[in-house]
Amino acid sequence: MAMNAHYAVVIPSYNSGALLVPTVLGALAFWPDVFVVIDGSTDGSESGLADFKADHAGLRVVRCRRNAGKGRAVRTGAEQASRAGFTHILTMDADGQHPAGHIMRLIEASQRQPDAMILGKPIFGPEAPRLRVWGRLGSNSCAWIESGGAVADSLFGFRIYPVASLLAVLRKSLFMRGFDFDPEVAVRLCWAGVPAVNLAVPVRYLSRGEGGISHFRYGRDNLRLTFMHLRLGLCWLLRCAHETLRQTARRTRGRNRGSRYGGSDTP
């Protein structure tokens, strides 16, 4: 393990229904330290977790009084983990889509590069809704450009973040509170100099009959993503312009130094 690197799993949950408890137990089967952030849930889905705390000393349940969005819930979990001495968090959704059996793969990748963020790249099964699979291509293309090709998938929330870098980026922004969290934080961490490692992992979409719940709203959340990429695109253009001006100024200084020390050898 990388020296001084300590990992915790953070699971944000909002009205996750019957899937929350098995998702948390699945994570605990592979990693002992799990923070569950109850983001203003009203369905009582977290009530079953109390039965397992006696057998899992590393299970912490953090309750937020009101629903503030995934980004805010992850930030709350990251702050709690940081105060408890953890240096990295692995985020996974509460709806059973992310494979707990791959937790160690992500952690091992992070141990090899502890300064990097480890980004899951989803492998979709045949049950995945085609609209969801193809619909993410627009956001992924934008994030790929904005990140300089570093982010392969911008919407998959099965990831590892270095906590200090994550909190530094979140504290500078008024955004990244809801569904826009995953793509924007990945791009902004790239801009902050955090390397990105993309790791392919399977994803499972559960049907309603299996308890599958989605809080994604096509109109509202696609509008939010569009607004987010407009902001990021403008910032990216400004960053490109700044870098062009900086390189031009550096070349100009180099030519000026050369002309001061150059000249004719003729007396």
List keywords for this structure.
267 residues, alpha/beta, 8 helices, 7 strands, globular
Task: Give an overview in words.
The chain has 267 residues and is α/β, with parallel strands linked by helices. 43% of the residues lie in helices and 16% in strands. It has eight helices and seven strands, in the order E-H-E-E-H-E-H-E-H-H-E-H-H-E-H. Helix 2 (70-83) packs across helix 6 (163-171), helix 5 (137-146) packs parallel to helix 7 and helix 5 packs parallel to helix 8 (218-261). The protein is globular and about 75 Å long. The N and C termini lie far apart (68 Å). The model has no long low-confidence stretch (mean pLDDT 87).
Helix count equals: 8
Mean of all residue-level pLDDT scores:
87
* Terminal CA distance: 68 Å
- Strand percentage lies at 15-25%
User: How large is the radius of gyration?
Assistant: 22 Å
In short:
This protein is α/β, with parallel strands linked by helices and 267 residues long.
Itemize the secondary structure elements and their pairings.
Elements: E1 7-13, H1 20-30, E2 34-39, E3 59-64, H2 70-83, E4 88-91, H3 103-112, E5 117-124, H4 130-135, H5 137-146, E6 159-162, H6 163-171, H7 181-191, E7 196-203, H8 218-261
Parallel strand pairs: 1-2, 1-4, 2-3, 5-7
Antiparallel strand pairs: 4-6, 5-6
